Amino acid sequence: MFKGAITALVTPFKNGKIDKEAYRNLIEWQIEQGIDGVVPVGTTGESATLSHEEHREVVKICVETVKGRVPVIAGAGSNSTQEALGLVEFAKEVGADAALLVTPYYNKPTQEGLYQHYKYIAEKTGFPIVLYNVPGRTSVNLLPQTVARLAEIENIVAIKEATGSLKQISEVIELCGDKITVLSGDDFTAFPTLAVGGMGVISVVSNIVPQDVAGMCRAYFEGNIKAAKELHYKLFPLAKAMFLETNPIPVKTALSLMGKINLELRLPLCKMSDPNLAKLQEALKNYGLI
User: Fold this and answer.
1) What residues in the chain have per-residue pLDDT under 70?
2) Which of 6, 13, 31, 48 has the fewest CB atoms within 10 Å, i.e. is most exposed?
3) Cα(287)–Cα(252) distance, rounded to whole angstroms?
4) Which neighbouring-strand residues pair with 98?
5) β partners of residue 156
C-alpha cells in the first residue's frame, strides 16, 4: 500500500501558533520534488507539544493541501487507547489514507497489551493502520512475533520500524512475508532495509532533500542498486547532521537556514548549541543547500 520515500513533516510555528502558510508551502514543495507520501504530526511534527485541537488542524491542513496527490499517513498515536482511537477516527473522517500509531509510551504495556491496543483500534475503525515501533522514544519494543500476530488483521497494513536493528527488521519480514509492508523509521537504515525486503522509509532528512531520498528509493526499485547505494552515502552525512541534537531540532533549523520556515520550537525543545549549529551549517554547505 505504501512504497518509497515518505516525509515525516515538521510542523512550522510562528508566534506560538501553527504557521499554516509555511506548512502548505512545505507540502507543495515536497510534492514538486517527487516525494512518495507525507506524515503529518509524527515525532518530527512535534506531536507531543500540540494540543488535540492543533493536532487535528495540522492533519486537516495536510489532507486538504495534498488533494490526493500522494498518500497521507496521519500521526494518531497515544499511550491511551481511547485517545488514539479518537485521533484515528478523525484521520479517517477528513480523508487521510492511513494512521500512524506509535506504541503506547510511558505506561510500558506487555506484548499482549500492545497486541490488544492495536487490535481494538483496527477493529473499531476499519481504517488502514501503520504500526510505529521506536523503543528509544517509548521504552517498549514491539517484537517481531507480536507484529506477525497483528499482520493477520486485515487493515493493519504496514510498520514503521525504528529500532535501527536490521536483525529485527529482517525477523519482521521473515515472519510476516507480504502480509505487512515494512518501512524504515531511520534514514540510516533506509537503503539496508530495502535490501532485506523493505518497501521504503518514513524519513526526517527528506524534509530538506526530498528529491534525493525519493531518488534513492526509485533507483533501488528500478534495479539500479549502484545509484541507490551512491545516494545512500551522499545522504549519510546529512542524515547524521539531522540527529546532532534531538529530532526535530536540527531539521527545523536546517529548513530555517534554507528559508523554508521560521525557526520556532516549543519547550522543552530549544535552539541548537553553537558548536552543533556550526556542524549543521557545514553539512548543509557541503551538500549545497545553503
Assistant:
1) none
2) 48
3) 17
4) 73
5) 129
DSSP element (H, E) containing 183: strand 181-184
The CATH number of residue 15's host domain is 3.20.20.70
Whole-angstrom distance, CA of residue 59 vs CA of residue 95: 9
Spatial contact of 50 and 11, defined as CB atoms under 8 Å apart: yes
β-sheet bridge partners, residue 245: none
In whole angstroms, give the CA distance from residue 173 to residue 190. 15
Residues taking part in catalysis? 132, 160
> How far apart are the C-alpha atoms of 290 and 281, rounded to whole Å?
8
For the chain, the domain total comes to 1
- Specify the pTM: 0.96
CA distance linking residue 203 with residue 66, whole number of Å: 18
Question: Residue 1 has what pLDDT?
Answer: 76
The SS3 call for residue 35 is coil
147, containing H or E segment:
helix 144-150
